[in-house]
Specification:
- Helices cover 11% and strands 15% of the residues.
- The chain contains five helices and 14 strands.
- The strands form four sheets. The chain has a six-stranded mixed β-sheet.
- It is globular and about 55 Å long.
Length: 377
């Protein structure tokens, strides 16, 4: 993720497997740090292959996702923009240009999570901390745009890519007693003094955004956790017939030198209106043939269809620079390879940018509200 405004003339290398495009080349070869994000979750076992009801496209329920492992904590309020059904919003006038800039006609979506034979699973892990977890001070590279903390960060905190990983090294922690979300980028624990590139603290019952112009643990100044796709959540949607009700974060190789609500930070020096700004939102077209995407008898097909329905109703939010159309998920519970393979067949050309500016209640709040000509769901 880019921490400051930099030119994004970046060579992006795709990984043949399920992981991110080379984080080093895609986000660190620029003068200032560039980053990419994905989110974690608890690690329940995968459910047995019981008969699963077909997932349809019902309206958004008046509820919000809860944090896995912290059932008393919402994943932000139900009226937060992350949890808002944008299927009825107007298409953005820049949609065609933004899609072209991301090579949508020749690109399929890429799940930035999944199995990693012999290594730490792809995706971003998170942890629900115990009340006794010690809080530590963090020395930040970008202290002027970081929340000072302290943070519940320790030697056993899961790190993106594993303890010895390079790359983005995101660490995400939730205090279930206070419903506080802590996120770090480039997290490095040391008993002698821990460091990170940047950090942000979020109150999960609040819609308050970061100050305008501030980064977070990702380039757009947004929280990471609510935009992570989680396998246990997908399984629950299929088994209960209740849809997944949040947007998914994704990356683009080149972004604009501005940001759209609810994003708070830009990550480029490219002024062209033909490339998407941070915070741009995209949805899978309502006309996309979800029923025909795969056969229901095929392994993990119903799981894939649940995600497609989510993409039609809640869409994707541009949150970082990286490979075009890489969308993020948690590292745990681990994803089956068959599902990841299916998700690699979603065509980017089937998406459209939407104009969600009409949903804004206040510039510094993530709350969303319907208005005449601006429907929710």
């Amino acid at each position: 993720m880019v921490r400051r405004v930099v030119a994004m003339a970046v060579a992006v290398v795709f990984v043949a497997g399920c992981g991110a495009a080379s984080t080093t080349s895609a986000r660190r070869s620029v003068p200032e740090s560039a980053r990419e994000v994905a989110l974690p979750s608890a690690t329940p076992p995968r459910a047995s292959a019981a008969p699963k009801p077909h997932v349809t496209r019902p309206p958004a329920p008046a509820m919000t996702t809860v944090v896995p492992g912290a059932p008393n904590c919402p994943m932000f309020p139900a009226n937060n923009v992350w949890n808002t059904n944008i299927s009825g919003l107007p298409v953005d006038t820049h949609s065609a240009a933004w899609l072209a800039s991301m090579d949508s006609s020749t690109t399929d979506l890429h799940p930035d999570f999944g199995p990693n034979p012999g290594g730490y699973p792809f995706g971003i892990p998170f942890t629900v901390v115990a009340a006794a977890q010690p809080l530590v001070a963090i020395n930040f590279q970008y202290a002027d745009e970081s929340d000072p903390g302290p943070y519940p960060f320790g030697p056993d905190t899961p790190i993106e890519g594993g303890a010895q990983a390079g790359g983005d090294r995101h660490a995400i922690m939730v205090n279930p007693g206070t419903c506080t979300l802590y996120e770090l980028w480039d997290a490095q624990y040391s008993a002698g003094g821990s460091t990170a590139g940047s950090g942000a603290i979020w109150h999960l019952r609040s819609n308050r955004l970061r100050p305008a112009g501030w980064t977070s643990a990702d380039a757009a100044g947004l929280p990471i956790l609510p935009g992570l796709l989680d396998f246990a959540q997908v399984q629950a949607a299929v088994q209960t017939g209740k849809p997944i009700t949040h947007a998914i974060r994704f990356t683009a190789q080149v972004s604009q030198d501005t940001f759209l609500w609810p994003a708070r930070h830009e990550a480029s020096s490219n002024a062209s209106p033909d490339v998407p700004p941070m915070g741009a939102r995209f949805r899978l077209s309502a006309g996309f043939d979800v029923a025909g995407f795969c056969s229901d008898s095929e392994p993990d097909c119903l799981d894939a269809k649940a995600i497609l329905v989510e993409m039609q109703n809640y869409g994707l939010i541009l949150a970082d620079n990286g490979s075009n159309w890489f969308f993020q998920g948690s590292a745990f519970p681990q994803w089956p390879d068959a599902l990841v393979s299916l998700l690699k067949g979603i065509p980017a050309s089937a998406f459209q940018a939407v104009d969600e500016s009409c949903l804004m209640v206040r510039p510094n709040s993530g709350a969303a509200s319907a208005k005449p000509g601006c429907p929710i769901g």
